[in-house]
């Protein structure tokens, strides 16, 4: 059985990165390279988040999505 920390690291954090990546590209006009630079990821990782090869296993509540959008806007600034 996996611990809560393992589940967070393997499922939830990648899902948050994926959502942030999608928001940055779709709503803020960032390129994959811009997203990679801001989040400290490779462009290939961002591509996998966008194409849902990574981080697609978690669905967020409306409140969580709102918080992720707020956080993303702060990252852009």
Uncertain residue ranges: none
* Number of DSSP strand runs: 0
Radius of gyration: 12 Å
Sketch the major β-sheet.
none
Helix count, DSSP H or I runs of 4 or more residues: 4
Observed structural traits:
single chain; 77 residues; globular; 70% helix; mainly alpha
Short recap of the structure:
With 77 residues, the protein is mainly α.
Please explain how this structure is put together.
The chain has 77 residues and is an all-alpha fold. The protein starts with a helix and ends with a helix. The protein is globular, with a radius of gyration of 12 Å. The chain has four helices and no strands.
Task: Give the arrangement of secondary structure elements.
Blueprint lengths: L3 H23 L5 H8 L3 H8 L11 H15 L1
Helix pairs in contact: 1-2, 1-3, 1-4, 2-3
């Amino acid at each position: 059985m996996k611990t809560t920390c393992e589940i967070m690291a393997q499922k939830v954090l990648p899902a948050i990165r994926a959502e942030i990546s999608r928001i940055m590209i779709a709503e803020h006009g960032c390129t994959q390279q811009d997203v990679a630079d801001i989040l400290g990821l490779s462009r290939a990782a961002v591509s996998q988040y966008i194409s849902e090869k990574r981080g697609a296993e978690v669905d967020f509540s409306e409140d969580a999505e709102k918080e992720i959008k707020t956080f993303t806007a702060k990252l852009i600034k």
